[in-house]
Amino acid sequence: MFATKKVAAYRIYKIVTMAVKFFLQVYFFNRRYRGRWDPSVEKKWSDLAGKQAREYKQTALKLEGLMIKVGQFLSTRADIMPRSFILELEGLTDRVPPVPWEKAKQVIEEEWNTDYGSMVHKISEKPIASASIGDVYHAWLHNGDSVAIKVQRPGIDYIIRTDFKAMKIVIWLAKKFTSFGKQADLNALYGEMVSVIGDELNFKKELQNGVAFGERFKDTEGVVVPRYYEEYTTRRVLVMEWIEGSKITDLTFLDKHHLNREDLAERLLLLFVDQLLNEGMFHADPHGGNILIKPDGTIVLIDFGMVGVIRKNDAEAVQRAVEGIIFERYGEVVGALEDMKFLLPAADRDILQEIVERVVAVYKSGDWQDGESMMMEKLLEDIQEIVRTQPIQLPTEFAFFGRALSTFTGVIYTIYPEADFIEMARPTIVRWAADRGGEGNTWQSVLRTIQPYLSAPSKILDALEEPKRYRRSMESFKRKESRLTDLTGRRRETVYITLIPFISLNGAVFLEEWIIAGSAGILTLIGLMRVKALSKKIQTDYEE
User: Fold this and answer.
1) Which of 17, 135, 409, 477 would staple 127 via disulfide (CB 3.0–4.6 Å)?
2) Per the structure, how many domains does the chain have?
3) 392 and 342 Cβ atoms separated by less than 8 Å
4) Which residues lie below 8 Å from residue 323, measured CB to CB, with a gap of 6+?
5) What global pTM score does this model have?
6) Running DSSP on this structure, what letter comes out for residue 168?
7) CB of 147 closer than 8 Å to CB of 242
8) What is the pLDDT of residue 124?
């Protein structure tokens, strides 16, 4: 299996055929139960999604490479992926068997162009950590410095490039034949994946990112970033300072050293808020293994291979969204989402504002912690329906930010399950908003702070009207959706007809049967033209 999974044709075949199988299963399911979505159908849909997730997980663990990282990304997308799918993928990690020492040593000596003993005094032949990109070893330089050496897995760059070819085919299929094209610019998302994960393969880029984060947090009390050794670092070998510590999610370690979990969770949250509210880089993979804790409570940030960037305009929009949540001005939250291009012009702002308000209310009530509560289930159903039918998209630049946010949230709740993000962040956000406003806006900042309390009576009255108002909005919403059902059904039938010659086309090209390939190609083209025409009609009706 080890040799087979490195064959490009095999990897592409496994990935693409699995995707086509999933797309057909979803198509036939929707066709079979069109117009009669009830609790029993919802249960069947959940079972199908869970079955697909289990198959994906098994395939990803066998193939490794990009499949694991894509699975981790999908496991954070609660907005577009069924809950059962997410639950199955939550345990998917990029832990893989380590590379044999002889092969790792060969990479080191090829990159350093010398015997490794001339560069380091001693190195552990057993890695202290293994991941899909590389293994980490503990070593000592000749000057006595204790260092961590990250060595890229042999052939991983070839595997990742092959997987990107397969993903390009899958994304094309998803864009043409599924509803995901509405939620995201899939071509741009593919480009973002190539950029971010491609940078992860270049350890010199990781060094640059690490140095930048070290400079950013050099004056932050209780936070350290390892020092990097540029003279030892190459594209496939990275050398950085060794810092003793444990995973921040090691609860036994926290209790052993009498570290206050609530205080630690708050410090972590504010550390992430700093990256959230300001333009520049953010850590795109902040899982428990990339955040260490020292016995004295010092937080250590490591592994900057995967980072994202927030632009100035987006940072300002995020700031407005956070302020809107803190100060309970949900219209501003929707406006900020619109500025960040999450919403297209035809989006119903009133419905979305009500959903934001309900999400915050459920969060504050604590009902979200009970996944079986009726309120939570109803809210999730409404959110999924709105995301599915409203003109909402995922801006490419926020794809990895959402993944980072979800991962980081999980870390904090592991440390301190009772964490209340809104209340923990409120003093910092209020202080930050006042500083940003300047002395001339002092009274405005004060009013923002006390506004939720002044508006309480009106909110009580408004809350009494909310169910009726929300019901009217949802009825209008569903009438609009029903008008599109017929066109959508006709497009799905065309998709089914088109997938058959498309699969035949790929098989014929692989077997070099060019006459069959030509015929299948013509049928595929005719089908795509028909799908495009129906999609244009749907989009026109959707925007009216």
Assistant:
1) 135
2) 2
3) yes
4) 329, 332, 429, 433, 448
5) 0.70
6) H
7) yes
8) 94
